[in-house]
Write a structure and sequence with these properties.
Strand content: 15-25%
Oligomer: single chain
Number of helices: 9
Strand order of the largest sheet: 8-10-7-11-9-12
Largest sheet: 6 strands, mixed
Structural class: alpha+beta
Number of strands: 12
Distance between the termini: 41 Å
Amino acid sequence: MNEFSAIQHFFTRSSHSLRSDVKLGIGDDAALLQPPPGQLLAMTTDTLVSGRHFPEQTCAADIAHKALAVNLSDLAAMGATPAWILLALTLPELSDIWLDGFTKSFFQLMDRFACQLVGGDLTQGPLSITIQAIGFVSPQNVLRRQGAQPGDLIYVTGHLGDAGLALACLENPHLFSLTSGQQQTLLQRLNRPEPRVASGLALSGLASAAIDISDGLAADLTHLLQASQVGAIIQTAQLPLSPILKTFPAASAWSWALSAGDDYELCFTVPREKQSFLAEALEDSGCSYHLIGEITQGDSLQVLTPEKNSFSFPSRGFEHFKKK
């Protein structure tokens, strides 16, 4: 099998799965796409590299899901509806078994959000996956990092810290005493993050600012604070922890929730006068949401324990270029 036969066999789909706004998809030098009238294009791209963004032993199906999910998470944070996907896949060698597992998982997640693969590239080299995701959002419904105001309430979706704990367990299993069931639950959170697209769409018109949590809550919230030129107070007692993380000492659990990456939940701010509308707006989003703090004047992020003491934790979050 060569590059072109692999593309034809694994990546070209039948016409019943095609979107009407794709005028020309895979098979030519470029795709021809028709954006809907009055909509902005939201575009994002992420690269995942073996051994850096996922363990080398990760199976093809999990790699495909995560690579697509992290891009859909970016669109969710903008309040955008996903539509078109571009994929650049670099493989050490062509493997029918690997490509079958990858594409089945990839298209399964893509179909859930009515997306279409419209082009990309397949080449040889160290394993890496680059995806560009394109979606639509009306100008009045865009969510941005900029816009939080003092007095706004800070929320997050889902639970925090499980994915980072899963990675730590893989790297140093002798340090943790977890059951096989707990390990599998954590690995699911690491390898199969759930894009909060429905939540992002529901927050349009309610949230004053939003960001997806990819590098850790504290690191990503800091990006939002800098864009909005405000500060924040986070209450450790209000951090949403999974049942597994709650079995750890409180300080350790809080540190995981604040600084571990790979959660791909949404962090968003809501004016107090709109707080009462959240329950109805997020009722059908398929995930929980939790109040964790408040936007303040200034430019600092304060994290307080139940005793109102400042809580110290590893604040770097994930870094794409490790310091030597």
